[in-house]
Amino acid sequence: MSKTAVAEKGKKSVHDYVNGVLANVIAKNPGEKEFHQAVKEVLETLTPVLEKHPEYVKAKILDRIVEPERAITFRVPWTDDKGEVQINRGFRIEFNSAIGPYKGGLRFHPSVNLSILKFLGFEQIFKNALTTLPMGGGKGGSDFDPKGKSDAEVMRFCQSFMTELFRHIGPDTDVPAGDIGVGGREIGFLFGQYKRLKNEFTGVLTGKGITWGGSLVRPEATGFGVVYFSEEQLKTKGTSFKGKTVAVSGFGNVAWGAVKKVGDLGGKVVTISGPDGYIHDPEGITGGKWEYMLSLRASGRDIVAPYAEKFKSASFHAGKRPWEVKVDVALPCATQNELNETDAKNLIGNGVICVTEGANMPCTPEAVAAFQEAKVLFSPGKASNAGGVATSGLEMSQNSMRMSWSREEVDKQLHGIMVNIHNACVAAANESDMPGNYVAGANIASFKKVADAMMAQGLV
Q1: pLDDT at 344
Q2: How many C-beta atoms lie closer than 10 Å to residue 157's C-beta?
Q3: Residue ranges per domain, the chain?
Q4: Is 417 exposed, middle or buried (0-12, 13-18, 19+ CB in 10 A)?
Q5: Going by DSSP bridges, is the β-strand pair 315-318/277-280 parallel, antiparallel, or unpaired?
Q6: Taking 80 as the threshold, does the pLDDT of residue 4 lie above it?
Q7: Which CATH number, 3.40.50.2300, 1.10.530.10, 3.40.50.720, 3.40.1170.60, labels domain 221-379?
Q8: pLDDT at 291
Q9: Is residue 182 classed as helix, strand or coil in its secondary structure?
Q10: pLDDT at residue 71 above 60?
Q11: 383, 437 in Cβ contact below 8 A?
């Protein structure tokens, strides 16, 4: 048999192995479409690295990495302000600890289920590996909805939730953070209950208040990181944010951090969005408008329409998403699968040059394919939104050292981490003969790090 024939046989063998793992994931996790999507997106890009490292196939690294090390579900009983007993379901998916303690947020939202948390936990493995910090992947949360609840109700829920969760986490075991529905208020209540139950003050949660172990820049870190990454993408085309118009979706922590940093770098954000629709402000969201955006979020109403009522330069588009607006750069920062193929074609037709994911998997597979086919710079969230968890890692370091770094020091380290992630993605894509493919680059660079650690630690 010729060398070419042997090589082709090897490729087919690897391809069959990958397809077999994916088929097994779908069979063993029926109905979990978000998890299936996340696994498929990663596995389909790993053929080149598996061909170069047959030891990964022999050790069945893929079969092991798609299976959570631990999946915990539990009942969360609590009492509302009327004295009525309420029951929610709590989760923690401890997915992979090969390179460090499990690390990933807690999400409180009615949509939370095993599929969404497994998708998020699986993504977190690779995102955390890209930061180069010693953090494994995990995710958790509850189908509890904090919207419309009183502070007392949120406190009672958080205390009940932590009363079960505390036995599964710890500063060297599993370090949760915030996510959708879990902000400073929720982290405070969760931390207080953990401290009470364990009788210790440790860095078991990140996103804490500045006066009790939190890190400066943490609230805006994901948004800052997205823009730092996007700026590096633009540099590959010899340009920058200066003078660019930018569409941002969402108006939470990721979005407001991105809006601020784009402005700092000379760009102009012209959209934000919420469940009710999107705002288009051709003048840009700066100064007092940016501050008003924060007050909108803090109101807890989860709508953006009032922005157009307050600022006459803006228009509100009910029930729509901002991807029909003509912009140079798009930063989807809301939630998973918010940007579909039609949206992608609208952006491409309007001349977009760069799309950088701020949320977790906000672009559908069809949208990603459209961007790549059109040669638009495109980055997956596991690379470009890693700034939040990277700064959580920096918070963990500060807690361990009993120190608090300045805003400038944290921002400098965050910027450096995002530049390094970008460079690692580019290098891995080039080595795999897929130049410019940030999806493949991110998956391959992060997978190799985790796979090597799993190989070194044996069959565990």
Answers
A1: 98
A2: 27
A3: 3-66, 70-202, 221-379
A4: buried
A5: antiparallel
A6: no
A7: 3.40.50.720
A8: 87
A9: strand
A10: yes
A11: no
Q: Where residue 290 falls among pLDDT bands split at 50, 70, 90?
A: confident
For 151, the token pair is 């502070």
The pTM of the whole model exceeds 0.70: yes
Q: What is the mean pLDDT of residues 30-41?
A: 96
Give pLDDT, residue 295: 87
- Give me the long-range contacts of 449-454 (CB less than 8 A, separation at least 24): 449/99, 449/129, 450/65, 450/96, 450/98, 450/99, 450/125, 450/126, 450/129, 451/53, 451/56, 451/61, 451/65, 453/98, 453/99, 454/59, 454/61, 454/64, 454/65, 454/98
- Catalytic center residues: 139
pLDDT, tens digit, 9 for 90 and up, residues 135-152:
999 999 999 999 999 999
Residues listed for the chain: 460
Nearest CA to 254 among 229, 277, 288?
229
Q: Is 3 helix (H, G, I), strand (E, B) or coil?
A: helix
pLDDT of 207 above 60: yes
Across the beta sheet with 315-318, the strand order is: 315-318, 277-280, 268-274, 245-248, 329-331, 354-356, 377-379
Residue 268 contacts by C-beta under 8 Å, 6 or more apart in sequence?
244, 245, 246, 262, 284, 286
Cα gap 220→223, rounded to integer Å: 6
Percent of the chain clearing pLDDT 90 (strictly above) = 92
Question: Which element (helix H / strand E) includes 174?
Answer: strand 174-177
Angle, CA 72 vertex, CA 71 and CA 76 arms, to 5°: 150
pLDDT mean across residues, the chain: 95
Residues 389, 179: Cα–Cα separation, whole Å: 11
What does the block give as tokens for 20? Answer: 């077999």
Report, as an integer, the average pLDDT of 403-432: 96
Q: Which of 231, 216, 282 is nearest to 261 (CA)?
A: 231
Indicate the CATH number for domain 70-202: 3.40.50.10860
* Amino acid letter, 373: E
CA distance 248 to 413: 24
